[in-house]
Amino acid sequence: MQFKSIFILLFITLNSFGQGGTFGKDPIIQQENFDKQRVHWGYFLGFSSYNYQFNYLTVGKDIELKTSTGFNVGLVGNLRLNEFLDLRFEPGFYATQRNLVYPDIANSVDKLREVKAANLHFPLLLKYSALRTGNVRPYLLGGVSSTLNLGSNEKAPDDNFSDRFRVKTWTQNYEIGFGLDLYLEYFKFSPSIRGVFGMNDELIRDNDPNSPWTGNIQSMKTRAVFINFTFH
Length: 232
Description:
- This protein is 9% helix and 52% strand.
- It is mainly beta and 232 residues long.
């Protein structure tokens, strides 16, 4: 499922609520005291698209990156700091794949490197919420995170000459995003979109410094987009 289809589905869902009494002109106020809780919990499901930002040592043909849509699942712990600020911890599992295509390599097998990842993601975020209007409350959020890549191959002795692409096991990121809290009859539903920006170089170089796969890469950092649907 592509992100465009997800947005269309979300728009249709919100529109159907808006036609009724939940988000209409005179909505029935629901979950009125929900945000007064000191601590509350939830879970999320979602989709993600991972990318890499490459910087090169010398000018040449860029590595072509083909991304795919992955899935996310995780938990949410929310600590209320005041009326507008919350501290959130959102540990989750993110499965994804990135395919790197090297235009200067002729052999079709060596030309492609599949970078699969099973990530445990640990973000600590500050959430700033606007004033609630009826059953809708927009918010911004940002913070830092650490990611554990269970399939990094960091300690593997083999490298790309044995068809093994290696990246670091742990990476650090900063994140920014926005979303909506929608107060329904029995729970709070919060769709959000977030950008993730890796801060450290993740690449493990091949043993040969002139490797056609890693020799010209100065740095390789994660760039990702998360679309999460949170239920409280």
